Structure formats: C-alpha cells, structure tokens
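From the pipeline queue, job 12 of 40. The input is one protein chain; the requested action is below.

Action: predict structure.
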Amino acid sequence: MSKQLSLKDLKGRLEQIPAAPQNLSGSKEHVVICGFEKHANAYLAIKLLHKNGLTLRKSKNLIDAIVAGSQEEAFILPRVEDPNELQSELSKLGFHVRIVTPGRNVSVRRIREKLGLTQEQFAVLYRVELRSLQNYEANEASGGHRKPAGLTAEYFSMIERYPDAMKRFAISSPSREEVFD
C-alpha cells in the first residue's frame, strides 16, 4: 500500500480490464469506511465503489484518504443492489465498513406503544418535547405526511432498536443549560 496510484495510472489499469457492468438499479446507501488492514486491496475497492455509482475520481480520493490515515470517510453510493454484499466485499478487500441506514418510515406511536409508555413518560424518559411527540402521533393518525426526518427519525429508530441503552443515554446526557453554562 506504500505506492499510491495516480488517477491517470489507475484509469489506465481499469481500462485494461473488461469493465464490470455498473449497477443500473439499487438504492442509495450511506457508507462509512473507517479503516483498513495491511493486506487491503485499494485497486479493487476503488473499482467496487465505481461499480456502485461513484465517479472514478471520487472513488480513488476516498480510498486514498483512508490509506493516508483518515479516521473515516463517509459518502453516499448512488446504486447499491445489496448493502450486505457490498459490506462483505469491501471487508474481504481489507476495509472496515459500516452501512448507515437513515431512519425511514418511523412510527412514533408504534414505538411508544411497544414500550408500554404514555406520551408523557416517553417524552420524559427519551428527552423528546411532549408537543412534538403529540404532533407526530396526531399526524400519523390522520394520515398526514409530516413524519420525523433525518436525525430525528434516526433517533426514534435507535430508541426502537435499543430502548434501554437510549434511555440511559438520554437520562445521563447533560441538559442544554449544563452544556452552555
């Protein structure tokens, strides 16, 4: 891994090999590469990322950054047919990878009821504004389109998957006043 390929050299090597067909379907996946083994095969990793929709330049820059010592590189792959297979292939190539799935279609009411909590209990234990919780649930009940998104959806997904750990985290986290005093 001591020898880094220039983009021109890499492109030349890739052109010598029959091109692997790029995935034309699949979903966007959020990927984090967070290290590599000594035996890592950067060339094949770049080729695999390119196959899943990244440009050759971006694929090379990501792998170069990891090899050069970056703690982690996060990116979105446009067309991944099977996230588990992608993770397995990159792992076999010597890279430590996590596929980070954003929270999707989170049912706040279902999570709360599954935990056997009232709205007030849930709001207190998981440090969620009671009014926001009520709004999400009311919107769900009426078939509205306003659902938690982004980090909020991910937070509710984490509560669903790890309720006890998230409760301990929420309870032990400092309040805003403690952080900004």
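Job complete. Strands lie at 27-36, 73-80, 95-100.
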